[in-house]
Amino acid sequence: MDPVRNPYAPGAGQKPPELAGRAKQLAAFDVVLERIARGRPERSVMLTGLRGVGKTVLLNQMRSAAISRGWGTGKIEARPDQELRRPFSSALHMAIREIAAAHRDPERVDEFLGVLKAFALRASADKGMREKWQPGIDVPVAKGRADSGDIEIDLMELLVDASSLAQDVGVGIAIFIDEIQDLGPADISALCAACHELSQLGAPLIVVGAGLPHVPAVLSASKSYSERLFTYHRIDRLDRAAFDLALLAPAEREEVTFEPAALDALYAAADGYPYFVQAYGKATWDMAAQSPITPNDVRVAAPDAEEELAVGFFGSRYERATPAEREYMRAMADLAGDDGPVLTAEIAKHLGRRPASLSPSRDGLIKKGLIYSAERGSIGFTVPHFGRYLRSQSD
């Protein structure tokens, strides 16, 4: 069939042609937005799940929902090598610019921007980089607010002031943070403290984060009250009905359909994971000669889909690991099957090593986002079917 008309699009954070199976989370977020609009207190939101389940897509869809209500929004992607101050400043600046035109008092907006600039410039001042980076805010720097150098105090003061500005306009502000598990401990603590203060004040400002399955544990380790501070949504693979919709709806818009047995074969191959659905759907479409798509089309196309996943989804991550880290992951694959979790003590036993000697490999893999601490003493792969991929490489 015509590859130009192929509706499927595997890609990091790329919205699928049919966002299936996420209606519950989007409806819950609409309730959050509506409650805040009516002056009701609400909690910030956290999306958690393995890679490839569509957390970033859902995060972006939630941001679109906030924008459609006239909210100010900004988005960042956390990185292990970057502190929160600079990217958060840019995201909040974007949000304020979106609502500033509706504010009746331009001077009040400029006053806040002066506070935001002071908060941002602490990132440069703390590192002796004042001349190397400027936040792009063309107002004088304010003094005595959000500029103490203590990120917990500064972020709390900054967000309280920002929420007050939004309240003047009658809208809210939402800051979206992807890969939130990559924030440093001090930044996580500051974010939790600020969200706690905002929820107590009933302020119209929320944080919406997305990250790996251990995000609740990361937040709880920082602030014991974090489990009550956020609404958590575990994002998982699609059930069969949502899977069928994700494949059929885009195809039917192109006047193409699938034989039921072909859907069965695709479901078995993709295992319901949204990224895999797009990869197998795209390869099968390109391979099929005509509609309806048959099980044989799926069978013939599967190697192309698996090759695409091996290079773009699995291989790119595997290449980032050191030889010692790869040995550690292969042991995980031997013991844990596709995904895990597996006890760290069992990995040490399998490799004939002392657990302490494997700590550098384990910690390096966690920092690279290849594995996560499922619970105390156990770990799992962050990527679905990564164990299967590793075993295929060693065969």
Task: Write structural notes for this entry.
GO terms for molecular function: electron transfer activity; heme binding; metal ion binding. Keywords: Heme, Iron, Metal-binding. It holds the Pfam family AAA_16. The chain folds into 3 domains: 23-234, 3-Layer(aba) Sandwich (Rossmann fold), CATH 3.40.50; 246-317; 321-394, Orthogonal Bundle (Arc Repressor Mutant, subunit A). The longest helix is centred in the C-terminal third of the chain and has 24 residues, at 295-318. It has 16 helices and 8 strands. The two termini are 34 Å apart. It is of the alpha/beta class. Helix 1 runs parallel beside helix 2, helix 4 (106-127) runs antiparallel to helix 5 (151-169) and helix 10 crosses helix 11 (274-287).
Provide the β-strand percentage band: 5-15%
Shape: globular
At the first level of CATH, what is the class of the largest domain?
Alpha Beta
Q: Helix segment count? A: 16
| Radius of gyration from the alpha-carbon trace, in angstroms | 23 Å
* Strands side by side in the biggest sheet: 2-3-4-1-5
- Mean pLDDT, nearest integer? 92
The CATH superfamily of the largest domain is P-loop containing nucleotide triphosphate hydrolases
**Main sheet overview:** 5 strands, parallel
Output the structural class: alpha/beta
- As for the number of domains, it is 3
* N- to C-terminal distance: 34 Å
CATH topology of the largest domain: Rossmann fold
Number of strands: 8
Per CATH, the architecture of the largest domain is 3-Layer(aba) Sandwich
- The low-confidence parts are none
Which series of helices and strands comes N to C? Answer: HEHEHHHEHEHHEHHHHHEHHEEH
Question: What is the percent of helical residues?
Answer: 55-70%
